[in-house]
Amino acid sequence: MLTPNLKDLPAGDHGFHIHQNPSCESLKKDGISIAGLAAGGHFDPGNTGKHEGYMGHGHKGDMPVLTVNPNGTADKALIVPHLKEVDILGRSIMIHAGGDNYSDTPLPLGGGGARIACGVIKQVEVSEGGQGSADNEVGTLLTVFQNLANSF
Ligand SMILES: [Cu+2]
Ligand SMILES: [Zn+2]
Question: Among all ligands shown, which has an atom nearest to the Cα of 66?
Fold first, then answer.
């Protein structure tokens, strides 16, 4: 489980993924600056090239849709069956403008479109249960998410 603790986000459903690179910088594509592009694509160590959502067999970084409450907070625990802490350390976590239909059709990558918030995932001291180990589930990293989202 992964428990977000986020605020100041637009209400509604948003695509929510682990992306490959530990950077949230903008990069230029075709001369246009694109927010969060330096994070790269969805974390896909198996090189599946497929976006199938958190229950699928494509990108390992695919997570359930992040549902933001009307007051802009997101705090509901999410099931992330394919991810362990070791997978996500040193990568980034991304929130998209639109939702996620867990498919590459009709739009690629779930259709979430623009990247609206991002954080680089770093190891933190965990007060309960000690330091996270490679075998821990992602939930032990929950404190990481307290100040994670840097809105673009
Ligand atoms: Cu994404
Ligand atoms: Zn994906």
Answer: 1
